[in-house]
């Protein structure tokens, strides 16, 4: 399948999930995230900074609030960031996400700050990456705007980039482009899949 075919297929698979399915699978992914020893080691690094996407409800995305709430309760020292989408530049601007941040949905259903926020933020050490599908080599298929590939390409080598997926990996994506940035790990409902780059960075 082409990337366009994969997008259509996995959007349909996600749309077929019930709200209860999305909630249960999201919680399952969060449990795997916190149970992984290497990920926990990264959370315990001094000055750890986690960047996360916020779920687009209409797209049935993974609900990352399960992870955000637990981080606030158990790792309050971790700086949590999210991002504002700029359609003019296809860029993401990171901001500090706090319990006081008031969010509203933009025209694409992406939760973004309703007022001024702190965009003078530290560099992430971990990034939770949205996706529609991924393959066994760590390549992902997103919505096609290139926002996250641009963002990931600017991160330091030591940053862990972790996808969250409701579905297992495809065997291989054939239409990989030079601008595609592979993940270092991906969490699917049955396991945490890691690639060599994750272990090299650990």
From TrEMBL:
- Pfam families the UniProt entry points to: 5-FTHF_cyc-lig
For this chain, one GO molecular function annotation is: ATP binding
- Which PANTHER family does the UniProt record give? 5-FORMYLTETRAHYDROFOLATE CYCLO-LIGASE, ATPASE INHIBITOR/5-FORMYLTETRAHYDROFOLATE CYCLO-LIGASE
Key word Nucleotide-binding present: yes
What Enzyme Commission number(s) apply to this enzyme?
A: 6.3.3.2
Per the record, the similarity remark reads: Belongs to the 5-formyltetrahydrofolate cyclo-ligase family.
Keyword Lipoprotein in annotation = no
Q: What cofactor requirement does the entry state?
A: Mg(2+)
Amino-acid positions noted as binding ATP in the UniProt annotation, renumbered to this chain: 3-7, 140-148
What protein is this chain from? 5-formyltetrahydrofolate cyclo-ligase
Please list the reactions this protein catalyses: (6S)-5-formyl-5,6,7,8-tetrahydrofolate + ATP = (6R)-5,10-methenyltetrahydrofolate + ADP + phosphate
Q: Which domain of life is it from?
A: Bacteria
Q: Which UniProt keywords apply?
A: ATP-binding, Ligase, Magnesium, Metal-binding, Nucleotide-binding
Sites where the protein binds substrate: 54, 61
Biological process, per Gene Ontology: folic acid-containing compound biosynthetic process; tetrahydrofolate interconversion
């Amino acid at each position: 399948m082409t990337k366009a075919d994969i997008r259509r297929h996995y959007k349909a698979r996600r749309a077929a999930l019930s709200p209860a399915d999305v909630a249960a699978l999201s919680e399952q992914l969060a449990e795997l995230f916190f149970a992984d020893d290497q990920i926990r080691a990264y959370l315990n690094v001094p000055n750890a900074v986690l960047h996360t996407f916020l779920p687009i409800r209409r797209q049935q995305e993974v609900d990352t609030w399960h992870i955000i709430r637990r981080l606030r309760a158990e790792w309050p020292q971790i700086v949590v960031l999210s991002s504002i989408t700029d359609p003019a530049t296809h860029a993401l601007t990171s901001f500090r996400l706090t319990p006081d941040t008031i969010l509203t949905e933009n025209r694409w259903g992406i939760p973004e700050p309703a007022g001024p926020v702190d965009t003078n933020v530290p560099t992430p050490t971990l990034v939770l990456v949205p996706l529609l599908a991924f393959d066994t080599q760590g390549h992902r298929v997103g919505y096609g705007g290139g926002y996250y590939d641009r963002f990931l390409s600017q991160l330091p080598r030591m940053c862990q980039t972790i996808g969250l997926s409701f579905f297992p990996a495809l065997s291989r994506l054939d239409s990989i482009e030079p601008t595609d940035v592979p993940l270092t790990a991906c969490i699917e409902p049955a396991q945490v899949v890691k690639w060599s780059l994750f272990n090299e960075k650990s």
